[in-house]
Amino acid sequence: MKTPRDLDVKIDEELQRQLLQAQTRRHFLQTCTSGLGALFLGAAAQKALSKDGGPPRLDFTRAPAQPLAALPPQFTAKARRVIYLHMAGAPSQLELFDHKPVLTQFDGKDCPASFMTGKRFAFITGIPKLMGTRFPFHQAGKSGAWISDRLPRLEKHIDDLCFIKSVHTDQFNHAPAQLLVQTGNARLGYPSLGSWVTYGLGTENQNLPGFIVLLSGGKTPDGGKQLWGSGFLPSVYQGVQCRSHGEPVLYLNNPPEISRPLRRRMLDAIDDINHQTHSNFGNPETISRIAQYEMAFRMQLDATDALDIRHEPAAMQALYGAKPGEASFANNCLVARRLAERDVRFIQLYHWGWDSHGDSEFYSLNVGFTDRCREIDQPIAALLADLKSRGMLDDTLVVWGGEFGRTSMRENRSGQQNPYAGRDHNPSAFTIWMAGGGVKGGMSYGETDDLGYEAVKDPVEIRDLHATMLYQLGFDHHKLNYPYQGLDQKLTGVKPARVVAQILA
Amino acid sequence: MVASGNSSNRLRLSAPVYCACVALVTTLGVGVAMLLRPALAYSIRSVVGLEKPPQAAPGSFYTVRVAPLFKEHCIGCHGKSRHKAELRLDSLTGAMRGGKHGAVILAGNLKGSELVTRLTLPPGNDKAMPPSGKPPMSADEVTVIKLWIAAGASGALPVAAIKGAPAPVPKIEFPEIDEASVARARAPLAPMVKQLQARFPGVLSYESRSSADVQINASLLGRSFGDKEFAALASVRERIVWADLSGTSISDASALTLAECKHLRTLRLANTGVTDPTAQALMSLSALKSLTVVGTSLTESHLATLRSKGVRVYDGHETSSNSNATS
């Protein structure tokens, strides 16, 4: 009888034999020039690098079975973990934080032609009308920052928030814009922010994933699962999506007839086979797979507990407005705090439904937008208060934002004004806020023009945000590298990115 | 003979007249050159002592705020190695002297100062500075230069004399990690750290790759981590800067050991059995900045003392700025 091991060896030998047969003398001569050239260049480059020393590279290698082991940051970090609240669909900055009284004066006037030239819109055609904010603004807190009346509870924390009002992007459709915000690249195939951070720092709690994703709003964001994908990084660094109702991680619990010892024996057997496969083929992804099985086994105990908000006292659930069993942003915020407490490195929340075009009631500023605000207002306020009272806001970087902004014009489609008040996508300016994690509270950075249409003072690129976040986590963004396709790949790409030093405490 | 015949025909000048003519022509030449090349005029005036070269005093607004901006954005082309348009901005003298086309800074005159004009041109303009492709000056940086010129472009005016200047941007630097010196700093305790890392996997780590200080996160071990274990870790106590002991079974028995962690900045003791003797012991930690005691029975009087020493104490009660969050 053939054991699986024999079979593996046979396949291996067979492949080896075929490969050798394919190598004719001509073949060898053909490839050997470029091969030798490459060898020479490789050796020469190595020599050149070692001679002048070259900039030392940070070493991110870990024991193969411990791919998520924690590594110290490059420098002393201000933030130990991140909670990223992504408002998928892109909320209107003009209805929340970017106060533009001049725009209100021009409400209903034709949009100036200069606003339209050279711009691409998702829907707007013809000449749209300018539209002032739909909601009253006022100043709040000691900092006197402007805020609309839509987020009354968050307003109580306004002195903890740092608004960046001059963020801009070059993507005007949801999926690529979300990818740009979350992976630094509008195309598929790049590691997400959370993956980079988990790759760079690992995670201290080996019983939970280092990068957890929670969704609410009834729909996966347009960018899809690639938003928390690991791209070319080993797949062990991808985000693990947990559900906020029912079983948090599908199929994590043992079925009734399987006991934990039995599960252990099963995993040991799978482990054996995987180790054989690895020794035959040497694919590091096999080791990733072994590590993931092991983590799942440990998670069976810890994740179930961490993700279950029924363990929270009723008063705490009420503070967030969380209701066990619901799939809500409130539940996810409470879970986020529980995960942060357990040293999960990167906690990513997506709340969908902010695409206020005005084409339907759900996607309107008057109705849908207001509902979304109500859904996030209390939970975010509670999260900030909760983190703060536990002394965790100091080293937790909380980020809130969408993937682009919204136009200063009321959306029209083929000359017809949309039935509800709405705004089209505007990549030229939007507001993101950060709190905690060594970022200055009670400040605003950057400005848009008088109509809130374009970032004019201190514009901030997405890659600047990334560089800033990595800096707070203890990294020079140039140095958080992964070698791929002959390049030292990095989150911030090849264009110059700056750490926005002005917002750092 | 032809030559001598020619010379005899030429107008003969006496020596003094000749000298006077040469002097006149030279003066005219220099005058025209000075008119055409104001920078030269400036140099000549300063050589003959008509123009006093401006001095940049240490601590002046120029030295502290303006010169660094020139250094960051300008001197690549207008400095020691290259001086495009004959303009040098690597010294106050150079800046005031101007370039090929004259002064670029007119003290107290923003409209007339070419430098300001160039800095404020729209980015696409051919004459805009810094030129396209180079990182632009931020609005705040331009404001700093404008304020300085408006106030007289002096090298003596102290920083405090110019009001309303935007706060300087903190410089972000990424120094290379000097591995040798890090290794040296770590050496005395390195074997101990290694041994403890093996005994408590994932609990003890260096604060960063460039530091010899350590942090301990025992919260991951829960109740199985107690006074005995903490005593073992305390062999590196002088290097501990950050410690999370939340949820462990640590008690007041560790108070004295804690008090010996002289460099401890952040201490988390949430949900532990520590009581007032521990709080008492913490009073001696001068480096302590942040203390979390949520879910412990420390009394308010001790916590108040710690607060008065500048420690941020987190006891689970909401701080004043968020006291209304639940309402």
Can you put this structure into words, describing what you see?
The complex is a heterodimer of chains A (505) and B (327). Chain A is of the alpha/beta class. Helices cover 35% and strands 17% of the residues of chain A. Chain A has twelve helices and 19 strands. In chain A, the strands form six sheets. In chain A, strands 1, 4, 5, 6, 7, 8, 13, 14 and 17 form a nine-stranded mixed sheet that branches. In chain A, strand 10 and strand 11 form a beta hairpin. The longest helix of chain B is centred in the first third of the chain and has 22 residues. Chain B has 327 residues and is of the alpha/beta class. The chains are: A alpha/beta (505), B alpha/beta (327). The interface between A and B is large, with 45 and 41 residues.
Q: Top keywords for this entry?
A:
heterodimer, A: 505 residues, alpha/beta, two-stranded antiparallel sheet, 19 strands, 35% helix, 17% strand, globular, B: 327 residues, 6-stranded mixed beta sheet, 13 helices, 6 strands, 38% helix, elongated
Tell me briefly what this model is.
The complex is a heterodimer of chains A (505) and B (327). Chain A is an alpha/beta fold and 505 residues long.
SSE topology sketch:
The complex is a heterodimer of chains A (505) and B (327).
Chain A: H1 4-22, H2 25-51, E1 81-88, H3 101-105, H4 113-116, E2 137-140, E3 145-148, E4 161-168, H5 174-183, H6 193-201, E5 211-216, E6 240-242, H7 260-281, H8 284-306, H9 314-320, H10 329-341, E7 346-352, H11 365-389, E8 396-401, E9 405-410, E10 412-413, E11 416-417, E12 423-426, E13 430-435, E14 443-445, E15 447-448, E16 455-457, E17 460-461, H12 462-472, E18 481-484, E19 487-490
Helix pairs in contact in A: 1-7, 7-8, 10-11
Chain B: H1 2-9, H2 15-36, H3 38-47, H4 61-73, H5 92-97, H6 114-120, H7 139-150, H8 179-186, H9 190-199, E1 204-206, E2 214-217, H10 227-233, E3 240-244, H11 255-259, E4 266-268, H12 276-282, E5 290-292, H13 300-308, E6 312-314
Parallel strand pairs in B: 2-3, 3-4, 4-5, 5-6
Antiparallel strand pairs in B: 1-2
